[in-house]
Design a protein that fits this description.
globular; 9 helices; disordered C terminus
Length: 203
Amino acid sequence: MLSWINFLILILSTALMTFFYIKSVYPATLSQKIGLKAYARCAYYRITASFFELVTILNYLFYFFLPLPLNFPQFFIWDYWISIFIALVILTPSLYIMLKGVKDAGREALFPDKDHTLYSGIYEKIRHPQALGEAFIWWSVALIFNSPFLLLYSIIWIPIFYWFCRSEEEDLIVRYGEPYIEYKKRTGMFFPKRKQNTDIIGQ
């Protein structure tokens, strides 16, 4: 019974995190309706989304002790150290990219700010380093818990984080206009764009 309760809370917390995060990425659009207080409201949405993300992490932990009574393997067939090794291979670059994105975004990572300028640093190469890193960190967590079920569940974060990014870009175009459209043209969403030959362009 407890395992099913944990699973239902996992689904609910995932859905609520998604709901509030999507609402948090539209401050410029919302400000057209309610003014500058939209940014404070979206910060509240972002914090609420972070709370439900924490609940989801706890659900992953509880699932290790309370797996669903299904005809599904509780652990991977290989030795646990292999799961840890794969988790670290995924986690190391993912955590670096996410934290670099948080650092270069500054306060905007959690609190939308109308006066914030377009990002620099890693954002000169890719537009969504935080989403790219965080989506795969969930896979690492599933592997650390040695759970095939959680790894399968973690696939859901790929479309969810892609949805986050597309929604955020809609609002960034409203906020920054043409400069952001030009920024999109020269940067990749998740991976750097290949540079064109500047010598040929200059000719």
